[in-house]
């Protein structure tokens, strides 16, 4: 299965973003408002320049408990952004996410942000594939009279 299929099957395809000039307070409000764990940080042209996650916020609070909320997103975001492509295989993306210990992966096409997948999306797609395979095997065994 390809990432494109995962994106097409997502019920909530809204990409939540924030500007690098926003404050951490504004980013946290956006995270809470949308019930999500990460925001893509986009430049003026809409290109992804980073990601701010719950982990980034917690690290910032730990370092600067009193002034963290007024810091700029650009100061605390993860800048070394790892992105996926819509034609990447789900198993490959799961491996990339696991090896890099990331839970949200921006998907880009022609340097344009087209979606975000979570590790939960990856697990859900794998479970769905396993269910389909199990169903096909049961049908096959039933037709052969083995069950």
Compressed to H and E, one letter per element, the order equals HEHEEHHHEEH
Helical residues, percent: 40-55%
The total number of structural domains is: 1
Q: Major sheet, described briefly?
A: 3 strands, mixed
Major sheet: arrangement of strands: 1-2-3
DSSP, total strands: 5
Q: Give the oligomeric state of the chains in this entry, treating copies of one chain as homo and distinct chains as hetero.
A: single chain
Average pLDDT score: 90
> What is the CATH homologous superfamily assignment?
CBS-domain
Q: Write down the Rg.
A: 19 Å
* Helix run count: 6
Structural class: alpha+beta
Distance between the termini: 29 Å
Q: Shape, please?
A: elongated
| CATH third-level topology | CBS-domain
Known CATH architecture: Roll
CATH C-level label: Alpha Beta
State the low-pLDDT regions, or none: none
